[in-house]
Amino acid sequence: MVYNNLKLQKMTHLEKMKSYTGKEFTESLSPLMRWLNPIILSAELGALEFEYHIRPEWLNPAGSLHGGVTAAIMDDIIGATIISLNEPNFYTTINNVIDYFSTAGPEEKIIASTRIVKKGKQFVNAQCEIWNSDRSRMIARGTSNLFRTEIKISE
Fold this sequence. Notes:
The protein is α+β, with helices and mostly antiparallel strands.
């Protein structure tokens, strides 16, 4: 399923993401991202913006977006942001620090945007913000530190 199309196989990871702008990113390397099913709004080197449609299985017992799903979205899109750098090695998350500011409800659309704050030889610090669809209310903001492993990213 991953990168079936021969044309997509010859693109960099960033080019593949850009080719899905305005569409569901069905060809992600991440099984979690394929399950989260985001729409790519923009993809630049070290900065992504994805839209998510909140589904019923993402809700907590109070009927709002579960904090664990919010954390999963952040961790996954930050990972994709690292992939957008077209580095040969896989980076693993060391920590996530998340501040939750507001709730989001069923059927609502949210936007997650990321940026690389600092990239060193071994470590990367990245930030993610999640907003409601018109960007009038921040749902959460988080930062993450990631460590470069010796594992090579497969195509």
